[in-house]
Amino acid sequence: MLGRMTVAAVLVCAPAMAWAGDKPLYQPAPAWVKPAPPLDVSKLGDADPILLVMDQQQRFANGEVSVYADMAMRIASPQVLTQAGTVPLPWDPAKGDLIVHRIEILRGAERIDVLAGGKRLQVLQREQQLERATLNGMLTATLPVEGLRVGDVLRVNFSITRKDPALHGHVQSMAQLLPAPMRLQFGRVRLLWPKAMDLRWRAYSKLPDLKPVTTPDGYNELVIDLPTAKPADVPNDAPLRFRPLPLLDATDYADWADLSRDMAPLYGTEGSIAPGGPIAAEVARIAAATADPRQRAAMALETVQDKIRYLFQGMDNGDYVPQAPAQTWSARYGDCKAKTLLLLAMLRALGIEAEAVVVSTDMGDLVSKRLPMPGAFNHVIVHATIAGESLWLDGTGGGSRLEDLGDVPPFRHALPLRPAGGGLIEMPLRPNTRPITDAEVELDGRAGVLFPMPYTVRVTVRGAQAELLRVVAAQAGKEQLDKSIDNLVSGLLNEPETVERSFKYDEASASAMITASGITYPNWSKEDGRYRVALDNAVSGITFSPDRARPAWREIPVSSGDYADTRVRTRIRLPGGGGFETEGDRTLPATLAGVALKRSVTLDGGVLTVDDRAVTGIAEVSPADIPATRAQVAQAKGRLLKAIAPKETPPLYLQVEAARRGKALDPILAVYAKQIAQAPDESSSYSDRAWFLDRIYDRKGAIADLTKAIALEPTADRYLWRSRLYSALKDDSHAMADARAALEIDPGSASAVGRVAELLAEQGKRDEGLAMLAERADQGGDDKNSYVNSQATLLAGGGRFDDGIALLDTLIASAPGKADLLNSRCWLKATGNVSLDTALKDCSKAIELAESPASILDSRGLVYFRLGRIDDALADYEAALEQVPDMAASLYMRGVIRKRTGAGGGDADLAAARMIAPRIDEDYTRYGIKP
C-alpha cells in the first residue's frame, strides 16, 4: 500500500476551482516548480528506502491552489510491484485540472518513458463511494505500468489545480508531513504565495524554526525538509489536543470570525420556503400541533432526520454549498449541509432562533489549535436557542426525540456561521438524557444460589447502534441478528445460553427493542464462609493506569475515552428465607477516573435490584489529580458491589434435595427443554442440559442427553464424561466402551489414556493399564507427569505402594515445589497406611504452596485419621468442606468419624457422600476403611 498511500498523501488538500476538464492534461511541469535533486539509481540496494523521493509543492495565487507532486519509489519486492504497478491519480474535474508531467521507469542508466507512443491514463467512472452514501464527483485516472520489474524505480510527476468559488477568493490547503522513522533520499514540502497575500501556516508537530524567504519573482517561499523529526510520544490516554498531527495547514483566512462571515451566506434561509409548498405545509402541521417551541424543534428535527435520507453531495461545487431546501425535500435526500439548511429554514419559520455551526466529528478539542479554515471541519449542524438554552441539533443523526433535545454531540467545539462573524463556541460535555444502551435484566434465583438462573433481558438501544441493528434485522437475516443479540446479552450476563430472541424497532422512540431469555450461570463463590456473587456493572469496567513517568508527560491529563453511555438495571429474585445482604459500595461517586457514575441498590421482599449507569468521554482527570484518582479507583475496585447469601446456605447436595421437593428446578428444566425444542440438531442443546442433570445427580438423564449429543457430534470429552457417569451407575462395560471411544477420537489425550488404564485395573487387568501408561510416559512430552502420576496410583491400588511412591519421588525430585505432586505422594501413603510421618510433611508443605488446598486438606485428614489423631483429622475435613462443601471424600470421612465417636450427623454425611459419589464405599473399602 505504500505507493498508493504516498500518492494519496500528496492530495490532502481542500477543494478549490471552477469547472475544468474531465480528462488529464499532459504538459511539462510549471515554471514555478523547483525540481528535486537528480536521483542516482545505479547503486541502490536493500538498505535504501522504498520511497526515495516525496516532493510536494504548492502555489497560492488569485484564489487558486496548484499542487505539484514528484514521487519516486523503489520496487523492492514482488509485493511492492503488485501494489505500485498501477498508478491512481484522483481529482475533481469540477474544481480543477489533473496535469500529468512525467511517468517513467528508472532502470540503471535507462530512462523508460511510460507515456511514450501516446499512452494515456484511463479515466474511471465517478462515484466510487456510493456504498458510503457519497456523490463526490471525483474521477480517478489510472495507468497499469507496463514492463515494471522488481529492482526498478517508478517516478511519477503530476499537478492538480483547485479553485473553489465558495471560498470567495480565499485559499486553503493541507500537506502531509512525513515524520521519522519514515526514510527518504529526498523529501520536501514547499509553499509559494504572493508577498501581498497574508498567508498563515501552521504545523502540529515539531519543526525547526522556519521563516519564509522571498523568491526573485516576488513570492514568499517556505520549505520544510522531509522526513520531519519523529513526533514526541504521548500516552494513549492523552486527549486529542495533546497528540501530534503530521499535518501542515495553510490559509489566508484572518481568524475564526473571518471564516464565519465568509461562510454565513451559504446558510441564509430567507425565501427558501415557498408559500403553499410542501415544506410550508410541514411547518404548518408542526405549528398546528403545538405552540411549545421545544416540541416544535423536536418535531422539525424528527422530520429532517427520518424523512430525508443521507447522501453526500460533493458534485457541482457541493463541497461547501448546500442544495436548496426545496430540492432536498423533493429528492428526499441530502447531506449534512442540505439537512442543516432545511432544518434552519423550518426552525426559523416556526419562530425559533437558530444558526448553522460547523464542527469536526473526529478532531475533538484539537480543532481549537488549528488554523481558521473550512478544512478544519467536516460536518455542519444547527445551534438553536430556546428559553436561553443552547440546543445542538444534528439533521444527519437518527432517532432524536423530544427528550433528547438537550443532548450535546461530543464534538467539543463549533464555529457559528454569522454575517457579523463569530468565534469558536465550546460545546459542553454532559451525559445524554437517555442512555445509548439501556438494559433491564431479570434473574430467577429462587431455586438456590448454586443453580443456573433463568433470565429475561430487555435492552433498548438508541442512536447509530440502533440503526445498525435495524439494518441487520432487515437485510442480514435471522442468524446474523441472533448473533448480534447474543453478543449484546453476553456483555450483561455470565455465560448466557439464549433460547428466545426478539427484535423490533420502535418509531415513536426511535429505539431498537431487544428481548432475550434463557439460562445464565452466576458465578457464586464461597469466601469467608459465605457465598458471594458480583453485582457491579460500572466500576469493574473502569481502567485507570496512566503512565506519566516521563517529565514531558506530567502535565498531560487523562481522557476517559470516546463517548459511551450504558445503564444496566438488574433484578434478582432470591431464594426464600431471607438473610441475603450486600457488601461493597451501594452508592458511587459522581465521577470516577473521568467516568460519570450513578447507582441505586434496593433489597426488598426477596428481590435485589441494582441500577448502574456509566458514561465515558465527558470528563478528564487533571495531572494533579492522577495520584488521588489512582487510589480512588483501587479503593472502589476493592469495594465492588456483591450479593452475600445467608450464612446457613446449605451445600449443593442439600439444595438439590430442597429444590426437588419444592419443584424449584422445573423453571430451569423448562428453559433447557425449550432450547432443545428450538435447536434439536445442535449437540450443545443436549450437552447443556446434561451438565445440569449431572449437577443435580440425575445421572441417567444426563447419560440420555449425552447419548443424543454424541450422536450429533462425538467428541473425546463427551465420551469421557459419559464414561464417568456409567461408572457411577456401576455399568463398567459401557464405561470402558466410552473410554476407548474417547481414546480412538483423540489418541493423544492423557485423560483418555488414564481413564482406560484405570478401568483396565478395575477389571483385573492392572498390568495392561500400567504398561499403557508406562509407554506414554516414556515418550515424554507435556503430559509425562500425568502419566507417571497415574502409574503411581495404579501401582498403589494393586498394593505396590513402595513402587508407586518411588515413581512420585522421581517426579518430585525433578520438579520440587509442585503442590499437586506432593499431594499425590501424601495420598498414596495415606491410602496405603505407610510412611505416615513423611506423608504428613508432604501434605503440610503442599498446603503451604497451594492457592486452593481443599483436596490437600482432605489428604492430610486421612493421614491424621491413620495416625489416630481424630480431632486433627476432623479439623482438616471441616476446613476442606468449608472450601468445597460437596467434596464427597471429606463428607464420607467426616461421617466415618462422627459414627465412630458417636457425634451426630454421621449418617447424613455418609448419605450425602454416596449421593455425590455412589461408589465411594468401594474406594474406602479398598483402603481398609468402613463406617
Automatic annotation (TrEMBL):
Keywords: Repeat, Signal, TPR repeat. It comes from the Bacteria. Residues 61-223 form the DUF3857 domain. This is DUF3857 domain-containing protein. Gene3D superfamilies: 2.60.40.3140, 3.10.620.30, Tetratricopeptide repeat domain. Residues 1-20 form the signal peptide. SMART domains: TPR. Pfam families: DUF3857 (PF12969), TPR_2 (PF07719), TPR_8 (PF13181), Transglut_core (PF01841). Residues 285-362 form the Transglutaminase-like domain. TPR repeats lie at residues 854-887. InterPro entries: DUF3857, Papain-like_cys_pep_sf, TPR-like_helical_dom_sf, TPR_2, TPR_rpt, Transglutaminase-like, Ycf3.
